[in-house]
């Protein structure tokens, strides 16, 4: 990460400016006014920080030209969608009509074509309409990864019903809270997870709700689920549904700003928070990755991530439903089978989150490490300390690291493979994509304001909280937040740079370099002081992880004042 020029770079920049000025001077000749203007411009460029800015501009020009083209294409697509009042269902219907026989979803021996996804989602829609569900209702979905998963919530979306995507690892009070906080009117659960619902069936917010169990391949129409005897066997019910009605008369009235799903994020109180994902937000995320990373129509994406989270369920599945790609799914991530699966399904792109790359890197070397066709991996959370090692061992040509939060309005993406960077924002884009870093107390996350009460922008190399301007009229910069409005309000900063403005507070500490690249540093509150410096726990974890053979480790600050006092006394 470069935050200032070296002496050699500064000297070279000054020499180039001077040489260019001399060349122009000779070309102009002995004309007083042009020579005077040239001298003034030259002195201006040679003063202050301008040589540094000029160096950075020239250095990043090819990158920024490419970014401008990519962003322009994406902006035009999103603008066209906004004009057409595009929703996820409407866009999927267009994709399915063009590619009815193309495989959309792969898992084990299952193959779902786009037409099969459309027909199953139609049956889900018709069935739940017959049960009285309508636009604005919420249904909780607790199901392990399977090809039917997106078909279920897509079918509900055709009615305008919002699906709360429940984490399959939740149990008891956190599970009850997650279902209740979304004001769910019913629960869909897979047979394998029925026991988790049975444990809370008589609790507040759950008692009396209709339960639909999606049975296994072996369950029959007569199957009664021992733990949920009153539940309906949804799989068998859908097999018997004849859906002849024109559902487009319903979903064509749905708005892009309508809620599509709830995706849960961890809360500071320990309880998950239901982030509102609108149609426009889902479209922006699913379509954004396709255009920003230049994915191809024949790409097959390996998605071993949970479908109830934004990475797997919104970014990964979104590229299928909205862009017509194919996704190969896995019920549960396996480090040892990661690239073996990519070979099995002929995947060309793979997704990752968090520590997946580290887990895969710890597996013994084998021929499948490089026998795959994966040219690109994208995701978030790849530690800089293992980035190059991972890409080299597995022969991954491009890493598309990105940054963003499920509920936020600000995202970044690394388009040019810069190691460790989560993305960049060109200087020309800062007006219409207003994201920035502001100073904060790294230990507490408290925003620092100047004497006028406004926030202070960070300089290159200075860590700060990442924020994004909220502009509700623009889909790209809007912020909906959580189902809990009080929780939503806590993430909003007001009067940031001017009276009345609003910004989304990510709560994450990032740092930029001289060239506009952003690097993730830590979460607010996850830093500690050592010898007068703020130290990010994630940075220390990255170093220790490499030393201990890529094993798990956790770093946190403790009070060691007694050691310092002892040293001072002795």
From TrEMBL:
Pfam family, one: AMP-binding
A GO biological process held by the record: long-chain fatty acid import into cell
Keywords, sorted A to Z: ATP-binding, Cell membrane, Ligase, Lipid transport, Membrane, Nucleotide-binding, Peroxisome, Transmembrane, Transmembrane helix, Transport
Intracellular or extracellular location(s): Cell membrane; Peroxisome membrane
Catalytic activity: a very long-chain fatty acid + ATP + CoA = a very long-chain fatty acyl-CoA + AMP + diphosphate; tetracosanoate + ATP + CoA = tetracosanoyl-CoA + AMP + diphosphate
Principal location: membrane
Matching Gene3D superfamilies: N-terminal domain of ligase-like (3.40.50.12780)
PROSITE patterns in UniProt: AMP_BINDING (PS00455)
Keyword DNA-binding: no
Highest taxon of source: Eukaryota
Residue intervals of the AMP-dependent synthetase/ligase domain: 92-424
Transmembrane spans: none
GO cellular component terms attached to this protein's record: endoplasmic reticulum membrane; peroxisomal membrane; plasma membrane
Membrane topology: Multi-pass membrane protein
MF terms (GO), sorted A to Z: ATP binding; long-chain fatty acid transmembrane transporter activity; long-chain fatty acid-CoA ligase activity
PANTHER family found in the cross-reference section: FATTY ACID TRANSPORT PROTEIN 3, ISOFORM A, LONG-CHAIN FATTY ACID TRANSPORT PROTEIN
Reported function: Acyl-CoA synthetase required for both the import of long chain fatty acids (LCFAs) (C14-C18) and the activation very long chain fatty acids (VLCFAs) (C20-C26) by esterification of the fatty acids into metabolically active CoA-thioesters for subsequent degradation or incorporation into phospholipids. The transport and fatty acyl-CoA synthetase activities are genetically separable and are thus independent activities. Esterifies VLCFAs in the peroxisome matrix. The VLCFAs are actively transported into peroxisomes by a PXA1-PXA2 heterodimeric transporter in the peroxisomal membrane.
Similarity annotation: Belongs to the ATP-dependent AMP-binding enzyme family.
Name used for this protein in its record: Very long-chain fatty acid transport protein
């Amino acid at each position: 990460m470069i935050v200032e020029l070296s002496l050699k770079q500064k000297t070279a920049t000054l020499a180039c400016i001077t040489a260019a000025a001399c060349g122009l001077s000779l070309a102009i000749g002995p004309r007083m006014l042009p020579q005077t203007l040239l001298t003034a411009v030259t002195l201006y460029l040679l003063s202050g920080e301008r040589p540094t800015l000029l160096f950075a501009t020239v250095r990043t020009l090819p990158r920024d030209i490419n970014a401008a083209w990519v962003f322009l294409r994406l902006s035009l697509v999103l603008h066209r969608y906004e004009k057409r009042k595009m929703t996820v269902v409407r866009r999927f219907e267009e994709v399915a009509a063009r590619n009815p026989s193309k495989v959309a979803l792969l898992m084990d021996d299952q193959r779902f074509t786009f037409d099969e996804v459309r027909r199953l989602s139609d049956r889900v829609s018709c069935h739940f309409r017959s049960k009285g569900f309508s636009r604005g209702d919420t249904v909780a979905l607790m199901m392990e990864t399977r090809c039917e998963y997106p078909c279920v919530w897509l079918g509900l979306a055709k009615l305008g019903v919002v699906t709360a995507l429940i984490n399959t690892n939740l149990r008891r009070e956190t599970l009850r809270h997650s279902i209740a906080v979304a004001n769910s009117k019913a629960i869909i659960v897979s047979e394998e997870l029925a026991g988790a619902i049975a444990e809370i069936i008589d609790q507040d917010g759950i008692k009396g709700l209709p339960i639909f169990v999606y049975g296994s391949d072996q369950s029959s129409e007569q199957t009664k689920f021992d733990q949920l005897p009153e539940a309906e066997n949804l799989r068998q019910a859908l097999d018997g549904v004849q859906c002849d009605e024109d559902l487009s008369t319903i979903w064509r009235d749905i708005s892009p700003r309508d809620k599509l799903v709830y995706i849960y994020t961890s809360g500071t109180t320990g309880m998950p928070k239901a982030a509102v994902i609108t149609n426009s937000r889902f479209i922006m995320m699913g379509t954004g990755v396709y255009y920003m990373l230049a994915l191809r129509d024949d790409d097959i994406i390996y998605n071993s991530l949970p479908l109830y989270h934004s990475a797997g369920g919104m970014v990964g599945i979104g590229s299928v439903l909205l862009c017509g790609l194919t996704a190969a799914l896995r019920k549960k991530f396996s480090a040892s089978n990661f690239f073996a699966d990519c070979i099995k399904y002929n995947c060309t792109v793979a997704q990752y989150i968090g520590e997946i790359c580290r887990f895969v890197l710890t597996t013994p070397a084998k021929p499948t490490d490089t026998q795959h066709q994966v040219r690109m991996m994208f995701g978030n959370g790849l530690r800089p300390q293992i980035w190059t090692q991972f890409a080299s061992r597995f022969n991954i040509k491009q890493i598309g690291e990105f940054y963003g939060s499920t509920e936020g309005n600000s995202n970044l993406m690394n388009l040019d493979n810069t190691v460790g960077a989560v993305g960049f924002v060109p200087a020309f884009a800062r007006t219409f994509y207003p994201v920035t870093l502001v100073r904060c107390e790294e230990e507490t996350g408290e925003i620092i304001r100047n004497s006028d009460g406004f926030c202070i922008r960070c300089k290159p190399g200075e860590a700060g909280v990442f924020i994004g301007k909220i502009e509700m009229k623009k889909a790209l910069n809007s912020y909906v937040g959580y189902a809990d409005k009080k929780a939503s309000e806590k993430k909003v900063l007001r009067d940031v740079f001017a009276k009345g403005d609003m910004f989304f507070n990510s709560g994450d500490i990032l740092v930029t370099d001289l060239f506009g690249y952003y690097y993730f540093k830590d979460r607010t509150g996850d830093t500690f002081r050592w010898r007068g410096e703020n130290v990010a726990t994630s940075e220390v974890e990255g170093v220790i992880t490499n030393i201990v053979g890529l094993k798990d480790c956790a770093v946190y600050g403790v009070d060691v004042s007694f050691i310092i006092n002892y040293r001072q006394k002795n």
